[in-house]
Amino acid sequence: MANSNSSRSGSVPSTARYGFSDASRAGDQLRRVGWWSDTGPGESEPIVAALSRTPDPDLALLSLDRIREAVGSGWAELSRALADDIGLRGRLFGVLGDSTAFADHLVANPGDWRRLRSDTVQPSTLHERTAVLLASVEADGDGVPGTEGGPVATFHGPEAVSALRGTYRGLLLDVAGNDMASVAEPSLPTMPYESVAANLSDVAVAALRAALSVAVAELQRSGVDEVPRLAVIAMGKCGGRELNYVSDVDVVFVAHSESEIPAATRLASLMMRVAGPAFFEVDAALRPEGKAGALVRTLDGHLSYYRRWARTWEFQALLKARPVAGDEELGDRYLEAVQPLVWTAAEREGFVADVRSMRRRVEEHVPSELVERELKLGRGGLRDVEFAVQLLQMVHGRSDGSLRSKSTLDALLALGDGGYVARADAADLVDSYRFLRTVEHRLQLRQLRRTHLFPPFDDADALTVLARAVGLRSSGRNTAAQALVGEFRRHGNRVRRLHEKLFYRPLLEAVAKVPTAALRLTTSAAVERLAALGYTSPEGALRHIGALTAGMSRRASIQGTLLPMLLDLLANTPDPDGGLLAYRKVSEALAETPWYLRLLRDEGVVAERLAQLLGTSKLVPELLVRAPEVLRLLSDTSALAERDPMEAAVSLRSAVARYSEPQRAVSAARSLRRHELLRIACGDLLGLMEPTTVFGALSSIWVAVLESALDVAVRDVASRSDGEVPARIAVIGMGRLGGNELGYGSDADVMFVCEPVGEADERTAVRFATSVVEQVRRLLGAPSQDPPLEVDIDLRPEGRQGSLVRTPDSYLTYYRRWGEAWEAQALLRARAVAGDRDLGERFCRSIDLIRYPEGGLDEAKAREIRRIKARVDSERLPRGADPATHTKLGRGGLADVEWTLQLLQLQHAHEFPELRTTSTVKGLRSAAAVGVLEAGDADELIEAWTLAMRVRNAVMLVRGKPDDQLPKHTRELSAVAAALGYPAGVDTGEVVDDYLRVTRHARAVVERVFYGS
User: Fold this and answer.
1) Closest to 470 measured CA to CA, from 496, 494, 436, 495
2) SS3 98
3) Same fold for the domain at 355-400+420-442+449-506 and the one at 859-1009?
4) Which of 94, 165, 596, 963 could in theory staple to 184 by disulfide, Cβ–Cβ 3.0 to 4.6 A?
5) Comparing C-alpha atoms, which of 278, 296, 28 is closest to residue 158?
6) Region label for 877, one of left (φ > 0), alpha (ψ between -120 and 50) or beta (otherwise)
7) Rounded Cα gap, residues 824 and 902, in angstroms
8) What is the CA 631 to chain-centroid distance, rounded?
9) Rama region for 20: left / alpha / beta (φ>0; ψ in -120 to 50; rest)
10) Among residues of the chain, what percentage have pLDDT more than 70?
């Protein structure tokens, strides 16, 4: 025929449509096997279609042609069976379309195709597979291979090796056929990766037992009659029942007694020499001292080494230890003895760091040109999953037996079920691990060679075959290849991301430091440990722990993981008991917040910082239960401590502007203020914010609340008067608000200014503005669980008896005719903060002549200010307060420093514009710069003022309520010290001494500069 694809009638039935790349050659081959004619496949179409679905149809067809020649006259039987048996078709074609090695095996063993028939009962248990291998070497005897009285092989030497190799390949063929069947025949069931790995592991264990039987025969031929008691312990993937098609099998050998070691060593060596050429390399390098150590040791020898010399990685390797061959009782004793060492290894100094270092070393040994294609050792490879899972197992498995699985996937699922890993993360890792292991299996099937290297990304042919082998189908070759590369990179990136998230989780280091016994203490032992940690009420702490971990819920499980670490973290805070109580309250309040515990578990820095906050502050937990979203910021230092105050203020005003109903609008303002207060408090307590930044941020959020409340009130009052707004209103900040220096518990000292709009008269404008101010005070002064929003307008003309609002002219008339020295002094800190900006600025400029009097302050008014200050010192200090440690009115405190600066401003600001500032710190620096205050004196005053402000804030944070007195109670004083940044365990007397020293120096300056002493 001129053209193998042409019929006499001129029709062209082509093999190319079935995926064969060389249509002419495929046509010839199909004709030879009897599945193609001039009109196409005919009745053989199901067979040809199945061939077309294999990973490499050309390879499958070539292999079948070779098998046809090998079976000779038996081809007709095989061909009929393929036509009738869809199971045989799927298993045989699936294997031949991916593996030249199994094609070679079937050519050498033509009858083995019958193993793949649907009616063939394959050996499927470990016992059955062992029996098949033993039968291949005609082993006689009952019992356990490798033990006294166990089956001993009749074959020996090369004859035994050859028999075992062929039988072992047949058993592998069984597994591969079931594994690949659904690739060629999609209607057949898919064999899960876990089943494939478990079956391969069982075949390997059966092979070890058969090799041991042959080795016993060899030992006896050498003149050793008594079989030494030897246990073979599988390690690595064989131990975890997750073996590949081709892999070394890691083992450790254990002898019963010292006297048996020579014979046991010889037996072990013989077994390894048999297994190598027959099955796979048996690698004993994981034994004590590695390749330099004795091949066989007694159980006591192993234990002695592990207790004295073993390194971290050796305990990690023991995770998967499993007795598989030889003396069962000895193997069980070995496992029972080493397990306690495995589950306390995490307590070793630097354990977590050692495991991480080992992973980095493994990764560094991958050649740079192969790192992207390395399935096993590269970034995002199988070792990333295994190292992360093993580290989590060894840290958390000390107290949770459900994590002590030898299988990577079982352990990963248990970690997810137990709450140690997010369920979504566990599911993603399981999915990616299965994918990568399946790719590894398909690569190894090709030639039954040990490989973990993904094909080059530009090798479209190899990638397409591999893509089809793992189940990725497409219409074009390049498309399949591209899809596979995309999936490989997606899974690799996901594995690496989750590996870094879990493997480098700070929680691991914190939990690892908790002694194993403390993770599962009896009640009495727990009380002793809690007392030792510094809890003053261990019984109370136990009640909190019991409440948090009660039940079988996932929430309780995660709490059980977190609490050992949190207890240690809280023990390093000033108030462990109060911190644990606060943690319980926060946890109960956020019980239905789905991300709360996940955040603590997955972001170690959040747990560490939260413990520090709760063990120091009462204000933080009170705010946290109503602003839990701030918890998320604890892992992001910049978001927590570096937010621009103006950004927060704009956000608050924008949110409030969306509400027309006053109460809802103010509720929104309170909520956003709560969030900001908590954010600032956390950044402050954690030492992430400078004091001046804290003062400015607190002032900014207060101003935003005022601005929002004013807008709401104006809209509300106007809505009740035909929508008319007859007045512009400005809010003038006074006191520390004017100075941009508020603390956590500060009121807002303000004055309100208005002026008529359009045709409105002054009386109408003032009446409208008064209604607005009353509404603002009513809205902000409503009861709340948050720190109060008190709007204090007592600094207005005539104090509490005066009008709530005045026009600029009215203010000026009052100050010019009746203003007193202290009122001019109060105006020094007046600053437009909210409302009509132009009106506010004009008002502030108009009062400059009052607060910066031409010619300065005369001596009579200076004496008056000094008398008022002296009266304040003696009359306003609360009864029982200590004047040495009262931050506001005490010696060298806030009032001393502020009044000193304000006197200098009244005396010299007309001459030196630099002094015209509302900021205390800036004002003091300016006073030194222009020469009205010594530089050293300015430094002393600034240090004292800043310290007093910080102490005042710290007391508010610690107690949850404002107080101007430095605490005397040791625990509260320790908490204040922590809030101020003193190291843990500092002597509280040192804190008090520091405060007294700084304020004493400041008081000396006040006496000299303010009082003229």
Assistant:
1) 436
2) coil
3) yes
4) 94
5) 278
6) beta
7) 10
8) 14
9) beta
10) 96
> Which DSSP helix (H) or strand (E) runs through 233?
strand 230-234
Q: How many CB atoms lie within 10 A of CB 242?
A: 25
Cβ–Cβ under 8 Å, residues 258 and 276? no
Q: How many CB atoms lie within 10 A of CB 23?
A: 16
CB-CB contact of 629 with 675 (8 Å): yes
Other C-beta atoms lying within 10 Å of the C-beta of residue 404: 17
For CA atoms 968, 974, 975, 980, the dihedral sign is: positive
CB atoms under 10 Å from CB of 16, counted, come to 14
Domain borders along the chain are 355-400+420-442+449-506, 521-615, 616-851, 859-1009
CA angle 43, 49, 50 (to 5 degrees): 110
What phi-psi label fits residue 253: left (phi over 0), alpha (psi between -120 and 50 degrees) or beta? beta
Strand partners, 227: none
Average pLDDT, stretch 59-70? 95
CA dihedral over 86, 87, 90, 96, signed as positive or negative: negative
If you average pLDDT over residues 978-992, what whole number do you get?
91
Separation CA 232–CA 230 (nearest Å): 7
User: In terms of C-beta density within 10 A (0-12 exposed, 13-18 middle, 19 or more buried), how is residue 354 classed?
Assistant: middle
4: pLDDT strictly greater than 50: no
pLDDT of residue 646: 86
Please give the DSSP secondary-structure letter assigned to residue 143.
S
Gap between the Cα atoms of 648 and 697, Å rounded = 9
By the 8 A CB rule, do 173 and 102 touch?
yes
d(CA 712, CA 772) in angstroms, rounded, equals: 9
pLDDT band at 249 (very low <50, low <70, confident <90, very high): very high
Count of other CB atoms within 10 angstroms of residue 882 = 13
CA 695 from chain centre, in angstroms, equals 33
- C-alpha angle 899-960-995 in degrees, rounded to nearest 5: 45
Type of residue numbered 252: V
Mean confidence (pLDDT) of the chain = 91
- Stated length of the chain: 1013
Residues facing 233 on adjacent strands:
252, 323
CATH topology of domain 355-400+420-442+449-506: Four Helix Bundle (Hemerythrin (Met), subunit A) (1.20.120)
Beta partners for residue 140, in sequence order: 152
Domain range 859-1009, its CATH number among 3.10.20.880, 1.20.120.610, 1.20.120.330, 3.40.50.1000: 1.20.120.330
Neighbours of 311 (CB within 10 A): 13
Query: Mapping DSSP to helix (H, G, I), strand (E, B) and coil, where does residue 400 land?
Result: coil
Distance, CA of 442 to CA of 445 (rounded, Å): 5
* 3-state secondary structure labels for all residues of 741-801: CCCCCCCEEEEEEEEECCCCCHHHHHHHHHHHHHHHHHHHCCCCCCCCCCEECCCCCCHHH
Pairing mode, if any, of strands 249-255 and 296-298? parallel
User: What distance in Å separates the CA atoms of residue 871 and residue 863, rounded to the nearest whole number?
Assistant: 12
Neighbouring-strand partners of residue 12: none
SS3 297: strand
Cα dihedral 499, 596, 642, 658 in deg (nearest 10): 130
pLDDT computed for residue 478 by the predictor: 65
DSSP string, 825-868: HHHTT-EEEEE-HHHHHHHHHHTHHHHS-TT---HHHHHHHHHH
Cβ atoms of 449 and 246 within 8 Å: the answer is yes
Q: What is the pLDDT of residues 269-303, one digit of tens each?
A: 999 999 999 999 999 999 999 999 999 999 999 99
Model confidence pLDDT, tens digit, residues 523-554: 676 777 788 888 899 888 888 888 888 877 88
| Number of neighbouring beta carbons within 10 Å of residue 871 | 10
Question: Could you give the C-alpha distances from 275 to 55, 148, 207, 210, 268, in angstroms and in order?
Answer: 31, 21, 7, 9, 11
